[in-house]
Structure formats: C-alpha cells, structure tokens
Amino acid sequence: MTLSPAQITELKAMINSTLQQLYNTDISLIDRHAHERSIAFRFGMYFAASVRASSFAGDNITIDFDYNRNDNNVKHLEEFNRRHGVFPDLILHHRGFNDVNILVIEFKGGVE
To answer: Which tens digit of pLDDT belongs to each residue from 73-104?
Structure first.
C-alpha cells in the first residue's frame, strides 16, 4: 500500500503523540527496563485510540501484535528469509492480506 504524503504526516503525528502519552503515563516501565512486550502493549493501547480518531479508521484496518499471517500462510518479507516468517511487534494493516500493511513497528528494550 502506498501512502500519500498527508497520510505519512498523519502517521508520524500519531506515533509522536502516542510516544508522548507512553512516556507521560508509563515512564516507570521504561525506567524499570520492563520487557519490550510490556511497553509495546501499552503503546498499542494508546495508538489504537489514535487510529480510531484518524483517517485510517474503518475499512477493516486492524492493529495486531506479533501477527505473522498472510491469509492462511506465514507473513514473510523477501529481505528477511526466516524459517518461521516475520512477527512484527505491532502492525497496522488489513488482516489477512500482505498488500495492505500501513505501519510496522519493531520495539527493542533497553539494556542495563
């Protein structure tokens, strides 16, 4: 899926707003070096609210975590030839298809 410049700008604003909310509300997760899944989950909760209020709402657009399906097959990217496919931490997409991936985010935890 090709996004327009306006959609890209909107996505960037949504991500920035969600990150700000995450830091304002859940800084303790970051300070305590919580597992990336904990942080990704909280980000996803806040990001879902942004999606519902955006131009991406509706049209069977879904946010999923660790989602690795393309219809009934494993989701894959040619540049990442992994045996078990690709498991993006967060994906904004049309579930069941590999051609309507709007946003894919991979979270990485900090090191102590």
So the answer is: 665 555 555 555 567 789 898 887 777 889 98
**Residue 85 Rama label (left phi>0; alpha psi -120 to 50; beta):** left
User: Structure pTM?
Assistant: 0.81
Which residues, given as ranges, of the chain have pLDDT below 70?
68-86, 110-112
Which helix (H) or strand (E) is 101 found in, with range? strand 101-105
CA–CA separation, 36 vs 38, rounded Å?
5
| Cβ proximity of 68 and 87 under 8 Å | yes
Distance CA 75, CA 84 (A): 9
